[in-house]
Specification:
Elements lengths: L1 H11 L2 E6 L7 H5 L2 E9 L11 H5 L4 E4 L5 H13 L6 E4 L4 H9 L6 E4 L1 H12 L1
Parallel strand pairs: 1-2, 2-3, 4-5
Length: 132
Protein backbone atom coordinates (compact mmCIF):
# COMPACT_ATOMS: atom_id res chain seq x y z
CA UNK A 1 0.00 0.00 0.00
CA UNK A 2 2.75 2.48 0.96
CA UNK A 3 4.56 1.78 -2.32
CA UNK A 4 1.33 2.38 -4.26
CA UNK A 5 0.88 5.72 -2.48
CA UNK A 6 4.39 6.77 -3.52
CA UNK A 7 3.73 5.79 -7.12
CA UNK A 8 0.47 7.77 -7.19
CA UNK A 9 2.17 10.84 -5.73
CA UNK A 10 5.15 10.57 -8.05
CA UNK A 11 2.93 10.38 -11.11
CA UNK A 12 0.74 13.28 -10.02
CA UNK A 13 3.39 15.74 -8.92
CA UNK A 14 6.65 17.29 -9.98
CA UNK A 15 7.94 17.09 -6.43
CA UNK A 16 10.40 19.86 -5.62
CA UNK A 17 9.78 19.96 -1.87
CA UNK A 18 8.68 17.48 0.77
CA UNK A 19 8.03 18.77 4.27
CA UNK A 20 8.28 15.70 6.47
CA UNK A 21 6.27 16.27 9.65
CA UNK A 22 6.28 12.60 10.72
CA UNK A 23 7.91 11.76 14.05
CA UNK A 24 8.34 8.05 13.36
CA UNK A 25 11.07 6.19 11.53
CA UNK A 26 10.47 5.97 7.79
CA UNK A 27 12.47 4.67 4.85
CA UNK A 28 13.52 8.13 3.70
CA UNK A 29 15.10 6.72 0.53
CA UNK A 30 11.62 6.10 -0.92
CA UNK A 31 10.54 9.68 -0.29
CA UNK A 32 13.84 11.26 -1.33
CA UNK A 33 13.70 9.38 -4.62
CA UNK A 34 10.37 11.14 -5.36
CA UNK A 35 12.12 14.50 -5.47
CA UNK A 36 13.03 16.07 -8.79
CA UNK A 37 16.44 17.43 -9.72
CA UNK A 38 17.50 19.94 -7.03
CA UNK A 39 14.54 18.93 -4.84
CA UNK A 40 14.65 19.15 -1.05
CA UNK A 41 13.17 17.39 1.95
CA UNK A 42 12.77 19.41 5.16
CA UNK A 43 12.49 17.39 8.36
CA UNK A 44 10.36 19.03 11.05
CA UNK A 45 9.26 15.85 12.80
CA UNK A 46 11.99 14.29 14.91
CA UNK A 47 11.96 10.48 15.24
CA UNK A 48 13.42 8.87 18.36
CA UNK A 49 16.01 6.89 16.38
CA UNK A 50 18.71 8.15 14.04
CA UNK A 51 17.53 9.01 10.52
CA UNK A 52 19.35 7.18 7.72
CA UNK A 53 19.34 7.41 3.95
CA UNK A 54 21.63 6.42 1.08
CA UNK A 55 23.98 9.15 -0.17
CA UNK A 56 23.52 8.23 -3.87
CA UNK A 57 19.80 9.10 -3.57
CA UNK A 58 20.88 12.68 -2.82
CA UNK A 59 24.01 13.07 -4.89
CA UNK A 60 22.67 11.59 -8.13
CA UNK A 61 19.96 14.24 -8.51
CA UNK A 62 21.49 17.09 -6.46
CA UNK A 63 18.82 16.64 -3.80
CA UNK A 64 19.16 18.02 -0.29
CA UNK A 65 17.88 17.41 3.23
CA UNK A 66 17.33 20.22 5.72
CA UNK A 67 15.81 20.51 9.17
CA UNK A 68 13.77 22.98 11.15
CA UNK A 69 13.37 22.86 14.92
CA UNK A 70 9.72 23.71 15.43
CA UNK A 71 9.41 21.65 18.59
CA UNK A 72 8.81 18.05 19.50
CA UNK A 73 5.67 16.08 20.29
CA UNK A 74 5.39 17.52 23.82
CA UNK A 75 5.59 21.14 22.66
CA UNK A 76 3.19 20.49 19.78
CA UNK A 77 0.67 18.89 22.16
CA UNK A 78 0.96 21.86 24.53
CA UNK A 79 0.25 24.22 21.64
CA UNK A 80 -2.77 22.17 20.51
CA UNK A 81 -4.12 22.05 24.08
CA UNK A 82 -3.71 25.83 24.37
CA UNK A 83 -5.54 26.36 21.06
CA UNK A 84 -8.39 24.08 22.11
CA UNK A 85 -8.73 25.76 25.51
CA UNK A 86 -8.79 29.23 23.92
CA UNK A 87 -10.89 28.24 20.89
CA UNK A 88 -8.07 29.22 18.53
CA UNK A 89 -8.51 27.75 15.06
CA UNK A 90 -7.14 28.29 11.59
CA UNK A 91 -8.91 28.67 8.28
CA UNK A 92 -7.86 26.23 5.58
CA UNK A 93 -8.80 25.36 2.04
CA UNK A 94 -8.81 21.59 1.64
CA UNK A 95 -7.85 20.29 -1.79
CA UNK A 96 -7.63 16.84 -3.36
CA UNK A 97 -4.32 15.59 -4.69
CA UNK A 98 -5.44 16.05 -8.30
CA UNK A 99 -5.74 19.83 -7.69
CA UNK A 100 -2.13 20.31 -6.55
CA UNK A 101 -0.78 21.74 -9.81
CA UNK A 102 -3.76 24.11 -10.13
CA UNK A 103 -3.32 25.16 -6.50
CA UNK A 104 0.40 25.75 -7.03
CA UNK A 105 -0.44 28.16 -9.86
CA UNK A 106 -2.80 29.96 -7.49
CA UNK A 107 0.04 30.35 -4.99
CA UNK A 108 2.30 31.79 -7.69
CA UNK A 109 -0.48 34.25 -8.64
CA UNK A 110 -1.08 35.24 -4.98
CA UNK A 111 -4.63 33.89 -5.23
CA UNK A 112 -4.52 32.51 -1.71
CA UNK A 113 -6.84 33.37 1.14
CA UNK A 114 -6.21 30.40 3.47
CA UNK A 115 -3.58 27.75 4.02
CA UNK A 116 -3.93 24.86 1.59
CA UNK A 117 -4.21 21.34 3.03
CA UNK A 118 -3.98 18.31 0.74
CA UNK A 119 -6.59 15.70 1.64
CA UNK A 120 -4.40 12.67 0.94
CA UNK A 121 -6.65 10.08 2.61
CA UNK A 122 -9.72 10.85 0.52
CA UNK A 123 -7.64 11.39 -2.62
CA UNK A 124 -6.17 7.91 -2.31
CA UNK A 125 -9.59 6.35 -1.63
CA UNK A 126 -10.77 7.89 -4.87
CA UNK A 127 -7.73 6.58 -6.78
CA UNK A 128 -8.11 3.09 -5.27
CA UNK A 129 -11.76 2.95 -6.35
CA UNK A 130 -10.72 3.81 -9.91
CA UNK A 131 -8.22 0.94 -9.95
CA UNK A 132 -10.93 -1.69 -9.47
Amino acid sequence: MQHQILIHLTLLLDTYLIINTVSVNLDLNKYLSMLTLDGAMVLVGIPENQVQFAAPVLVGARRSVAGSGIGGIKETQEMLDFCQKNNTTCDIEKISIDKVNETYKRVLNSDVKYRFVIDIANSLKCNNNNDK
